[in-house]
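Work Package 4 report. The design task specified in the project plan requires that, given a folded chain encoded as structure tokens, an amino acid be chosen for each position. We show below one input record used in the internal validation round.
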């Protein structure tokens, strides 16, 4: 079997340093070329490539094969003309020696671009890339950088922020000073790292996709989400007004309790509206109801009651809100004078109401979860679970009764 062992030189280093024209074929010709190139430039890695070509040919000869050693070079005019020159020389070698396969020897990424040209003309069994031992780290770094620059996502993630930093920092340093410019740049980089670290882009993309799907399918939750957003803004505004009304706030605790006391009813209403809209979508849809959607409104109201109760307790203890007074009741024979509820009693009432409401939510979720709108009973409006006969893989209710009669 004839094997072509070819050393590729795209930039024609051999011709430029020795004045010889390629292709150079034969063991003696390539060995003489090693001496000429080594004398012209002892530091050239092409010397190692030529020696590796001779070593591979000798190894094939030891295995009783017939190697044909050759060196092929391009030219220095342009990359296109260099590739065409290599293709022309390969055609001459293949027409003369008719090899069954080829072993390609290269020493740089530039020469590696010629491998497809060889593969288009003869079967390539091996590509031997020669890396000089002293320059292995540099060569590996080059290939890593080449792979990095070939990745579009990595370029946009790393190179774009670095480029913006190098452009913006001189302008900021000129306008506001080096320290302020460095602070602004580091703040921007920190925000960008947090943005990528928390995958904010993926979260925003998911929200936009779900919003688009909701608009196209006409879900009720689209309207309720808009209403919930408005209620949230109202709650934040009410909390801010409550904090601003404090004459002499001491520390952070009292303003935080005032903000919670004034904003929690609106925020709870916003969460309740959003959860109610999502629950309506589940009820209208054909999928079985999930317990999480059924229990969520009760949990929202329970949490709101607890937060409202504790914030009212602390504010009343500090004298920032008035005690709750139950008005007088006078209905026929029933007459109850008005009385004030202490802060502890009001907190206990809120906590007890939240606890009972959460238990009610668990009960409702366990009763109605797993049902659909079609399974509700039109007579009393209650939902029923699937009969046992529908939960089995085969058979009907009549089959179950027949089986029971036969077993008696």
């Amino acid at each position: 079997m004839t094997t072509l062992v070819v050393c590729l030189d795209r930039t024609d280093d051999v011709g430029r340093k020795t004045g010889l024209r390629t292709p150079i074929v034969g063991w003696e010709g390539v060995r003489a070329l090693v001496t000429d190139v080594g004398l012209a430039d002892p530091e050239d890695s092409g010397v190692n490539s030529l020696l590796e070509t001779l070593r591979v040919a000798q190894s094939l000869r030891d295995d009783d094969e017939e190697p044909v050693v050759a060196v092929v070079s391009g030219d220095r005019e342009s990359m296109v003309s260099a590739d065409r020159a290599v293709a022309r020389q390969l055609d001459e070698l293949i027409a003369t020696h008719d090899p069954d396969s080829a072993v390609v020897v290269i020493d740089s990424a530039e020469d590696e671009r010629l491998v497809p040209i060889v593969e288009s003309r003869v079967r390539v069994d091996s590509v031997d890339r020669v890396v000089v031992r002293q320059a292995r780290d540099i060569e590996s770094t080059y290939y890593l950088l080449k792979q990095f620059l070939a990745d579009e996502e990595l370029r946009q993630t790393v190179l774009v922020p670095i480029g913006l930093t190098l452009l913006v920092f001189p302008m900021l340093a000129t306008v506001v000073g080096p320290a302020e410019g460095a602070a602004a740049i580091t703040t921007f980089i920190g925000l960008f790292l947090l943005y990528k670290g928390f995958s904010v882009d993926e979260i925003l993309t998911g929200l936009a996709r779900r919003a688009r799907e909701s608009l196209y399918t006409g879900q009720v939750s689209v309207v309720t989400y808009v209403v919930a957003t408005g209620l949230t803004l109202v709650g934040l505004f009410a909390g801010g007004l409550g904090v601003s009304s404090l004459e002499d706030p001491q520390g952070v605790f009292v303003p935080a309790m005032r903000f919670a006391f004034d904003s929690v009813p609106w925020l709870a209403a916003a969460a309740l509206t959003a959860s109610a809209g999502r629950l309506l979508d589940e009820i209208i849809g054909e999928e079985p109801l999930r317990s999480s959607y059924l229990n969520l409104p009760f949990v929202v109201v329970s949490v709101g009651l607890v937060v409202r109760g504790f914030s009212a307790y602390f504010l009343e203890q500090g004298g920032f809100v008035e005690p709750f007074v139950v008005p007088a009741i006078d209905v026929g024979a029933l007459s109850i004078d008005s009385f004030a509820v202490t802060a502890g009693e009001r907190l206990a009432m809120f906590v007890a109401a939240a606890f009972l409401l959460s238990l009610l939510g668990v009960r409702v979720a366990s009763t109605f979860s797993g049902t659909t709108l079609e399974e509700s009973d039109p007579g009393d409006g209650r939902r029923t679970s699937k009969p046992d006969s529908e939960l089995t893989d085969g058979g009907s209710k009549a089959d179950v009764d027949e089986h029971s009669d036969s077993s008696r």
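Residues 219-398 form one domain. Validation will be extended to a larger panel in the next phase.
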